[in-house]
Structure formats: C-alpha cells, structure tokens
Design brief:
It comes from Malassezia brasiliensis. Its EC number is 2.6.1.11. The chain is 61% helix and 0% strand. It has helices at residues 3-18, 30-41, 52-67, 69-73, 78-81, 89-101, 110-117. α1 packs parallel to α3 (52-67). The protein is elongated, with a radius of gyration of 21 Å.
Length: 121
C-alpha cells in the first residue's frame, strides 16, 4: 500500500476511534462502522479498492460531519425548528433526550397526561 494510502487509512481509523458515542443508541456505533468499512476497503496487506482521491474525499466528508462544519455553514431555519403547529416540539424532544442520556425517566407525569388528553400542551 502506498504511503499516501496508508496515511488516509490511519486517519480514517483514528477518526473512527474518536467518533462520539450516541448515548441514546448504545448498540449503534458509527465509529465502529467507519472502522469496518475502512478495513474492508483498505486491508493492510493489499491495495485500496477505491481510488486515493475518493478515499480522501470520504475522509474529508466524515471530518466535516464530526466537526459540525456543515451545520455552521448551513444552519437549520427557525421555521423548521419551531413549526407553527407545535412550536415547542423540538425543544421538548431535546429535553427528553437529555433526560434519557442522564438515565432519568421520560414517562409523562399524571398532570402531563391529563393536559395532553384535553389538548393543552
């Protein structure tokens, strides 16, 4: 394997190792998927199946995703985050995800269930 391809392989494996874990889906590890794809695409003893340019492009794309560069470049519009039908939906979803990540219950209280039943959130 050429030196450049070896460098890309090492960079992909390092990126896979440092990919953040998802506390809401502990059984799904995107870093492990990157590692397996790298090993399948670039086994250490043989040539890469894709061109070096494609591998570099994949590495750059994954680094952009990990660093949230695309999110800063293309922010989500306010009307998407606060839809007219339920403006607090996503803030409630993020709050619930935070509770799950901390190991707290997300089951609605009796009062919340009554409010939902009668249509007032």
């Amino acid at each position: 394997m050429s030196g450049a391809a070896q460098d890309v392989r090492k960079a992909l494996l390092k990126l896979a190792q440092t990919w953040p874990k998802d506390p809401l889906r502990p059984n799904l590890d995107f870093g492990e998927a990157i590692r397996r794809a790298t090993e399948a695409e670039m086994p250490s003893a043989s040539q890469a199946k894709s061109s070096l340019a494609e591998l570099r492009k994949s590495l750059a794309s994954l680094e952009r995703i990990r660093s949230s560069e695309s999110l800063r470049e293309y922010p989500t519009p306010r009307n998407v985050l606060h839809p007219a039908s339920t403006p607090t939906y996503y803030s409630q979803l993020v709050e619930a995800m935070g509770r799950v990540a901390r190991g707290q219950s997300v089951a609605p209280s009796w009062a919340e269930r009554v409010r939902r039943f009668f249509g007032s959130r």
